[in-house]
Amino acid sequence: METAEIRRRWLAFFERHGHTVVPSAPLLYDDPNLLFVNAGMVPFKPYFLGQETPPYARATSVQKCVRTGDIEEVGKTTRHGTFFQMNGNFSFGDYFKKGAIEFAWEFVTGSREEGNLGFDPEKVWVTVLGPGFHPDYPDGDVEAMEHWRAVGMPAERIQGRSLKDNYWHMGVEGPGGPCSEIYIDRGPQYGADGGPEADEDRFLEIWNLVFQTEEITDVKAKDDFRVVTPLPAKNIDTGMGLERVAFLLQGVDNLYEIDEVFPVIRAAEELSGKRYGASPADDVRFRVVADHVRSSLMLIGDGVTPGNEGRGYVLRRLLRRAVRSMRLLGVQDPALPTLLPVSMAQMSKSYPELERGFSRISQIAYAEEESFRRTLSSGTTMLDSAVAAAKSGGAGILGGDKAFQLHDTYGFPIDLTLEMAAEQGLTVDEEGFRRLMGEQRARAKADAKAKKQGHGDAHAYREVADSIGHGVEFTGYEEVTSEV
Ligand code: ATP
Ligand code: MG
Ligand code: MG
Ligand code: MG
Questions:
Q1: Residue 69: how many CB atoms within 10 A of its CB?
Q2: Please, where are the H alpha helices in 257-357?
Q3: What are the φ and ψ backbone dihedral angles of 136, each rounded to 5 degrees?
């Protein structure tokens, strides 16, 4: 079943059940705490918090999402995209646990002829919040458990899990609540028996039903937050990974092999002369390329441009990682002019605006590849000789001064140095690097002060702002990895 068909069925199912179809919000949504929309509920947040009155009691959407915290997983797990699409159904004080569980069961296991997904009910596992993790649920989420039993789930395939898996929040302050997740057993060839609690590769999480009931703050981790107050209404917020369902229904092994993504891997095979499936290390690179090209396409499509901070830095990093992965596959020539149009041809089936905007989108992407190629060709020689020196001196570590020089002279962001050094078996003295960066920033500040006292001309301010902006570069990296 094509991804576009699953999307169509999703919206039609919930529309039939009284939900208003709401188009995806852009990835750059106006939420100061988030780099990008990371879940389907984000655009509805004011409704959940009771700050605004929703114009409908039930809504459904297929929301574009980017999770920067998942970048490191891409290509290594079977199931994480940087960009992905989240199917959602939402109830604003309307139906609650019973309704959400009944809809989910019908859509997942109902017949394909009638527009559902038609998964074998025997392969479905679910989880609920287990006992002892939340003061309001001393015995666990008994209510959710009973609704699952009522639709026909046997008790052996309902597992109780901790807050880490069965409490959902945005990763920042906002609405939250206990949740119930739906998993599909992919079969013994993918791992041991024992349900999702035992193996999340064999048992693939496809859908999370969140019982949105409280407002939380001080979020430090999935299971570390503080409850502020109950929400004014009992809401439902669900999220199903469209690509995950697609990979199951298309009978392929992972998210990168679905119709919307795989053609980029094919194009990368052609460019490189290497075959996907021949070497595990190369396969990760192929998957990273396919994911990052698609994610970059969607981000530029929504108005992000490469930069040294925040959102722009995430995009820059994705584009650069795609280009570097192609190099590691042996391709020295520009790759994006071949790969990006292939991704656009797939994604424009659901997002026709990508085709209309493609000349702008592609110019931005290709220019970034060109500038990165220049950076690489000037810095790589220096990096290689520093690596060789460190190795011949018997040190397994590249000095912080070298990393600083690469940054300062050649524009190598620290994460690039880390990655390239790791490929040659070296770590980097990051602490030393950060110290030198700090010293440089202090010098720039002192200079600024001196200039201000001297003549205070606007040009000097700009210079300082630029130099500080440069130093801020690796804050972007911290933001990339700090999202929960
Ligand atoms: P996982 O445990 O696999 O990382 P999650 O628990 O973080 O997933 P949720 O926050 O519950 O995911 O999001 C709801 C749904 O969105 C998931 O059940 C999954 O189907 C999908 N999803 C989440 N993250 C990704 C991703 N990086 N790529 C593709 N789909 C995703
Ligand atoms: Mg996750
Ligand atoms: Mg999970
Ligand atoms: Mg989940």
A1: 17
A2: 262-272, 280-301, 310-328, 336-347, 353-356
A3: -80, -10
Per the structure block, which two tokens stand in for 329?
A: 């596959």
Residue at token pair 């797939």 = 346
Exposed/middle/buried for 122, CB within 10 Å: 0-12, 13-18, 19+? exposed
Token pair, residue 253, equals: 């092994």
**Nearest atom, ligand 1, residue 67 CA:** 27
Q: Which run of H or of E encompasses 62?
A: strand 58-66
pLDDT for 258 equals 98
Confidence at residue 453, expressed as pLDDT on a 0 to 100 scale: 63
Token digits of residue 358: 């493609």
- Residues 205, 219: Cα–Cα separation, whole Å: 23
Instruction: Supply the DSSP string of 125-138, one letter for each residue.
Output: EEEEEPTTSSTT-T
Tell me which H or E stretch contains 233.
strand 224-241
Residues in contact with ligand 1 by the CB-under-6-Å rule are: 67, 70, 79-81, 84, 86, 168, 205-208, 239-241, 243-244
Whose CA is closest to 237, among 255, 214, 219, 217? 214
Would you call 185 helix, strand, or coil by DSSP?
strand
Q: What is the pTM of this model?
A: 0.88
Q: What is the pLDDT confidence band of residue 452, given thresholds at 50, 70 and 90?
A: low
Residue 479: predicted pLDDT: 33
What is the DSSP-derived secondary structure letter of residue 87?
E
Average pLDDT, the chain: 91
- Interval 373-392: pLDDT, tens: 998 888 888 899 999 999 88
Lowest mean pLDDT among 327-336, 337-346, 390-399: 390-399
Residues near 271 by beta carbon (within 8 Å), at least 6 away in sequence: 326, 329, 331, 333, 335, 338, 339
Q: What are 67-109's pLDDT values in tens digits?
A: 999 999 999 999 999 999 999 999 999 999 999 999 999 999 9
Q: Please name the residue whose Cα sits nearest to atom 8 of ligand 1.
A: 205
Nearest CA to ligand 1 atom 25: 80
